[in-house]
Amino acid sequence: MDGPKRSQLRVRLRVTARRRGADGDGAGGAAGPGGRKRRMEAPVRNSVAKLQRREIGGRQLAARGGGPAAAVPERFRNMQLQEEFDTYDENAHLFVKLQFLKRRSKIIEIVAAKDIIFALANSGLCAAFDRVTNKRIAFLNLSPDEVIRSLFYNKNNDSLITVSVYAADKFSTLKCRTTPIEYIRRNQLDAGFPLFESESLKWPGFVEFDDVNGKVLTYSAQDGIYKVFELKNYSFLYSIPDENVQEIKIRTPSYVPLKILSIEDGKQLKSFKHLLHRNKKIDFIEQFNEKLLVKQENENFQIFDVRSSELIEVSVSKFMTPSAFIFLYENNLFLTFRNRTVAVWDFRGELVTSFEDHLLWHNDCSTNNIYITSDQDLIISYCKSEAVAEDGTVVPVGSINISEIMTGRCIAKITANDPSLSVPGRRNGYSKRSSDWSTVPEALEDVTALFYDEDRNEIYTGNSHGLVHVWSN
C-alpha cells in the first residue's frame, strides 16, 4: 500500500492468531521464532504467516541531546548499570490461574514511553515499571487467563495497545485493548477499552499496526476480508475482499499477480503481473514504496520499479538471501541480516555499508535485540563478545554495541570486562541496590530483549531470567 509518511519511526507490528495450543512457556506464548512474538519479518512464502516487521522512516534530524554528529558517542559514554526490575512475582498465583504465567520467564519485548517501562515475558505476563519511582506499577493482565502476546505504543494518542489471547477459547482468537499511558501510570487499567470487537481474529487472522501511515490492518479469515482502521481514533476506513488470495501465496507457476492500493482509501493504483522463474521457490517478495524486491532460489536478486518498470538484477553471488530486512525510509536504504551480520544496501543493488564490529548474538535477528534510532543514524544491538572471569576463564557474555549505520563504525560498547563499569547505589535518595541484584556480567548474559529510550538516553535490556536492566550515564 502507498501513502504519506506521517511519523519518523515506522513500526509495522503484525500479530497472527494461532492454532489451538502454542509454544513457548505456555499455551498462549508469544508467536515467532524461538517462541518470540516480536521480530523482524523473515522472508517467507506466505505473508499471512508473517508476524511482524519494524521499518524505520523519518527525516534526518540533529542527534538527540544536541550538538553535531561528532558528539553522538558522548551520549553512550560511561553507561552504567543503574537499576534492575523483576517481572517475576512469587505472589502471581493470587491473580492468575494459568500455571505458565506463574513461572519465571524470559523477557521477549520491552517498550518504553513517558517514563514507563513495559516488559513482556514469554509466558504472556506483562509488567509496567515507573522509571521515576523505580517501582512496579502493575501487571497489565486484567483477566486471570489472559496471555499478552504483543505490545504497541500508539504515539498518535499516547496509549498502549495490548494484543492478547485467552484460555477460554483455547488461545485461538486475538483480542486488542488500548489504555492511555496516563491511566497506566495511575494504575487505572480499567480505563482502557477493547478494539476491533466486530472482527473475528481467529487463526490465521491477524492485526497489523502501521505507525508511519497511521493505520491498522486486520484480516478476518472467517469472512475473508481485510479491513483498514485509523490508528488515531480506530475508526473504520474501508475493506478489501480476500478474493481467494492470501496476500502472497503463489497460485500461478510463472508470475505473481500484484495490486497496489492507496492506503488512504483503498483505491487501486496499479495492477500488474511480475514474471517469475518456473519451478523456482520464492525466497521473498518485499515492497518498499515503489520498489518491489524479489528473490527466488538460486536466482539473481531483482529490484523492480513498479512505476517506471525499470528492473535491476544483482548477482546471486553478490546478494545472498537474507533472513530479515529493515527499511530506512528517508535514507532510501535497507538493512539485511544474514548469519548474524548486518549490511546496508541501496535500491540500485549496491552494498553501502558493512559493519566492523557488530556480530549479532542471536541467529533469529529479532528486532527485540536490535534498536535503530529514529534519526536512522545508529543501530544498537546485543552482540557477540567474551568476558574474562575473576579466575581467568573466558565467559560467553554478550555486549551492547552502538554503531553508525552510514559508516559501519562502532562508536560505543557496553561490555562486561570494561573496568569503568560499576554497579552504583540508587540515586535520588532511594535505597542502595540489593546485594543479590545482578552484576554487570550477569546483566549482560543471555539478553533476550533490548530497547533504547531516546528521550531519557537509557538502554533497557531484558534477559532469560525475566529481569530488566537499566543502562544510563
TrEMBL record:
<feature type="compositionally biased region" description="Gly residues">
    <location>
        <begin position="24"/>
        <end position="34"/>
    </location>
</feature>
<dbReference type="Pfam" id="PF25463">
    <property type="entry name" value="DUF7899"/>
</dbReference>
<protein>
    <recommendedName>
        <fullName>Transducin/WD40 repeat-like superfamily protein</fullName>
    </recommendedName>
</protein>
<dbReference type="InterPro" id="IPR015943">
    <property type="entry name" value="WD40/YVTN_repeat-like_dom_sf"/>
</dbReference>
<dbReference type="InterPro" id="IPR057221">
    <property type="entry name" value="DUF7899"/>
</dbReference>
<feature type="region of interest" description="Disordered">
    <location>
        <begin position="15"/>
        <end position="44"/>
    </location>
</feature>
<dbReference type="InterPro" id="IPR036322">
    <property type="entry name" value="WD40_repeat_dom_sf"/>
</dbReference>
